[in-house]
Amino acid sequence: MSETAPQLPAPDGTSDPHRWLEEVTGEAALDWVRERNAAAESELDAFRDPLSVEDTPLSATLQREIREILDAKDRIPAVTKRGDFLYNFWTDAEHERGLWRRTTLASYRTEEPVWETLLDVDALNEAEGEDWVWHGARLLRPAGLEDGEPYRHALVDLSHGGSDADVTREFDLETRSFVPASEGGFERPEAKGSLSWIDRDTVWASTAFGEGTTTSSGYARQARIWRRGTPLAEAQLVHEVPESDMAVFAGHDATPGWERDWVIEAHAFYDTTVHVVDRTQEPPALTQVEVPSDLEVDAHRDLGFFSPRSDWEVDGALYPAGSLVVGDFERFQAGESELHLLFEPTESTSLAGVTVTRTAVVLTILEDVLHRLEVHTRDEHGDWERRDLFPELRGSIDVAAVDADVSDEIWVTVTGFIEPTALHLADLADVAGGGEVGELEIVKSAPARFDAEGLDVSQHFAISDDGTRIPYFEISRLDAEDLSGSAGPRPTLLYGYGGFEISLTPSYLGAIGKAWLERGGTYVLANIRGGGEYGPHWHQAALKENRHRAYEDFSSVAKDLVERGVTDREHLAVRGGSNGGLLTGNMVTQYPELFGAVIIQVPLLDMKRYSHLLAGASWMAEYGDPDTEDWEHLRTFSPYHLLREDPSAPYPPTFVLTSTRDDRVHPGHARKFTAAMESLGADVRYWENIEGGHGGAATNEQAARMNALMYTFLWDTLGSSS
């Protein structure tokens, strides 16, 4: 225990002794950060690599190995097809901030594609004296594409240090240069917002336009139409949402013959109002899509896609939550709702993804957290036909249309925990006519990044406190031994998230495999409630006053690992980030007796203040509003307020990490929680990256350093690698 009185927040949130640490760039706060960064690095860099004959620091070994994986030149370049080219953004050791580049499909198929560099972000930073991080690009579909007109105009997003707030600048693909604002180029100042093309001289703008034009979450309140050559402040206001909403979004669908404009009011996560915009009227007229606010709606060509998150009744037909319903969109808007149920969930299945090509709809389905594919097409009478797609594939499967406007080609990416990723290409053009699915061509395959010899992947189910079966994956060596050379509890890292209907599925472990599995560790991925593994009801089961279920699920997986003899308390660690940082923060404060080490990354931890910090207000649909009676349940899972001078068990060794540049989850959460733990004399260390945004790192070097410190902490705490 600390020799001085602990500095803890009042349980009711009325006082906060560490609030000064919320000053993100305050000199006193940054001095506090620098001091703790130095202490954490000094401690962890002193731990030696037990596998090194040269007495090397483990952190140095891991940083080098992880950096080699992140920078590997034989990674599969992710591509997006536009016209005749495949576009890719690439980072490696020589291009830390990255290259935006393109190649042809024929060249991409070769072992050594020839890339044309469009923008070198490192060179841009050097020329401009900036710290830009790539945030993406949107290309304008040329009016004469069918006649061979090439793509030329792009809107490029760049962020300072990786923050969510970014700028947009128009880029000319022909000259490979930015179009200056002085010459009529579109430029959006730094804000949480976006520009998107309508045509060559017109864009949708959803961004900050001055005082009072952002929501309480910091996102855009207004959707405007901005015409070239006019000031941004004079862009035509089309729609505005209340300050209490999360954001407004606007966009244009340029599919020839099916052009549409959309304005979406995001009241909260999974709570939206969707409008179709008629720009031929002056002012532009909005027509609301009459669906429940928790139903997700989209359209492609003639089809409307409707994904209800609660049971939806239309004209006497009941479509269950988690289903997918399709129908003619224009007829639906006219009140003629001839709809078809394309997917209906079961107790063990949920819809993980929908990919639309020119004539086909591919569904990615999770069945007990394992993927399978279906393809749905219409016959000459308009009736829908279903068939299984590539049933031979095993692992996590991701599908993306190559170019949904003009073809039925799809990219199919397959990966697993210990199976390196492979990229395939297939053509579904013949399926609609009753023909066979085209050949699944392997285009790229990545090599192994770690030694998977002897590793086994298995799925298990723990029983939560209320009797619910909670699936989890275990990756471990069948012949694992502890340091004494005999079978026994293994160093085990348990990872979870449990929020915002995000599903955790198998993916190649790469750096985790190298830093953890290859050295004898066991890795576990838990699919707890709050996620989307079993559809909307799995998410909704852990909302607001039921958030405790996510923590009961996670602790039940931990207990099951011990009961099965996989590990014991001294060798079991947990890791989570963002909402997962809230999860692991609750493991520290509510279940300290279960764990030997805890990693908390870019976390929410102060649930009394969270809605007043950066984007926090946008998450109140998930957690509740602490300024109302909701505080009564929020306080039960606010780790900052659950810290006690006399906990039920000693708090486990804890490592808290965040980023100064994180403008989504305020770094004050991590800082204040660490300071409160320090005041208790708890075993805690802290590390804050100056850049990185919500991802924690802006470059591969930063990511390698951050992960090297984390895994060094785990090996130092749980036992040296074997």
Short summary of the structure?
Helix content is 18%, strand content 33%. The chain has 722 residues and is α+β, with helices and mostly antiparallel strands. The protein starts with 26 loop residues before the first helix and ends with a helix.
Please, could you describe this protein's structure?
Among the domains are: 32-68 and 455-505 and 539-718, Alpha/Beta hydrolase fold, catalytic domain (Rossmann fold, 3-Layer(aba) Sandwich), CATH 3.40.50.1820; 94-191, Roll (Nuclear Transport Factor 2, Chain: A), CATH 3.10.450; 345-447, no CATH class. The protein is 18% helix and 33% strand. It has 14 helices and 39 strands. The strands form nine sheets. Strands 32-33-35-34-36-37-38-39 form an eight-stranded mixed sheet, with helices on both faces. Strand 10 (194-199) and strand 11 form a beta hairpin.
Please name the CATH topology of the domain at 32-68 and 455-505 and 539-718. Answer: Rossmann fold
Q: What's the helical proportion of residues? A: 10-25%
Distance between the termini: 33 Å
What's the average pLDDT? 95
Could you say which structural class the secondary elements and strand pairing correspond to? alpha+beta
CATH superfamily of the domain at 32-68 and 455-505 and 539-718: Alpha/Beta hydrolase fold, catalytic domain
The order of strands across the largest sheet is: 32-33-35-34-36-37-38-39
Show unreliable segments. 482-486
- Main β sheet profile: 8 strands, mixed
CATH domain class of the domain at 32-68 and 455-505 and 539-718: Alpha Beta
The CATH architecture assignment of the domain at 32-68 and 455-505 and 539-718 turns out to be 3-Layer(aba) Sandwich
Counted by DSSP, the helix tally is 14
